[in-house]
């Protein structure tokens, strides 16, 4: 091939440029040699994952349960391993991460934010219906399938997700997730369930319409915890003047400290912010 960067993955795929990096993985573009079809291949080093291989097994079992079931959830097409690595081949999302779009726009126009949140919420309902909690919803794990403005948003990265049995809906006790998006009950270790994803969805909605996330830099564990306890406000006013009361109400229903009182994905899908489209939005000056 004359290209030192191109490697053969078990002779079926050729990997190319790096699409992204996460905590445990490098994701590369890959071409399936016989069909020419392009994928995103998550390459996970077994050495780096030592002792945590079960995270990858969980990711694979979760993905095989939900793949192809919802238009806003990435599909896993193939899985294989070599002595050193594990490889997961996904639909290729060429439109980058949501976080990049927020950064380049500053913030989203409210109707566009609502359309996006509606799609994410529908996908969250779907994964919750399948008995899965994602636990790491954030704009870095939300990808666009194409570079177009109206591309589909896809929930990716099920590496921290859990399958929960019906009778143990609030049974997970461990701290995980990403600072800024973690629900209070995760910090208190009082057990958590699907509602942690709704908290993260609230932070994402907040971030989309304002351009920042409601968390201050925390130096201590106590500060981190305090930050997560729903101490947020729709201030400074200059960031919120164009956001409707309906939009703020939607965020308030996600960022409820008591997980029992927090709205579910089903309830949020009936919220006026997601169903009445343009009606509530304050026009840009
Ligand atoms: P980690 O568990 O290490 O965070 P992710 O699954 O989030 O790994 O992947 C890391 C990054 O790789 C993502 O944030 C994204 O930029 C890129 N990526 C992951 N999956 C895809 C995909 N299907 N298409 C394109 N890029 C992807
Ligand atoms: Mg990730």
Short structural description:
With 285 residues, the chain is an alpha+beta fold.
What would you note in describing this structure?
GO terms for molecular function: ATP binding; protein kinase activity. ATP binds at residue 42. Residues 13-274 form the Protein kinase domain. Keywords: ATP-binding, Kinase, Nucleotide-binding, Transferase. By secondary structure, the protein is an alpha+beta fold. The protein has helices at residues 53-66, 98-105, 110-129, 184-187, 195-210, 221-228, 237-240, 245-254, 265-269, 272-275; strands at 7-9, 13-21, 25-32, 38-45, 76-81, 85-91, 132-133, 142-144, 153-155, 162-163. It is 33% helix and 18% strand. Helix 3 runs antiparallel to helix 5 and helix 5 packs antiparallel against helix 8. The strands form 3 sheets. The chain has a 6-stranded antiparallel sheet with strand order 1-2-3-4-6-5, with helices on one face. A two-stranded antiparallel ribbon has the order 7-10. The chain has a two-stranded antiparallel ribbon with strand order 8-9. Bound molecules: adenosine-5'-diphosphate (ADP) and magnesium ion (MG). Adenosine-5'-diphosphate is lined by residues 19-25, 27, 40, 42, 74, 90-93, 97, 140-141, 143, 156-157, 159.
Overall mean pLDDT stands at 87
Structural class: alpha+beta
Strand content: 15-25%
Report the biggest beta sheet as strand number plus sense, adding barrel if it closes.
6 strands, antiparallel
Shape: globular
Helix and strand pattern: EEEEHEEHHEEEEHHHHHHH
Give the helix proportion (percent range): 25-40%
The parts where pLDDT drops under 50 for at least 5 residues are 1-6
User: If helices are DSSP runs of H or I spanning 4 or more residues, what is the number of helices?
Assistant: 10
Which strands sit side by side, in order, in the main sheet? 1-2-3-4-6-5
Bound molecules: adenosine-5'-diphosphate, magnesium ion
> What would you report as the Rg, rounded to the nearest angstrom?
19 Å
Q: What is the straight-line distance between the termini?
A: 55 Å
What is the total tally of β strands?
Answer: 10
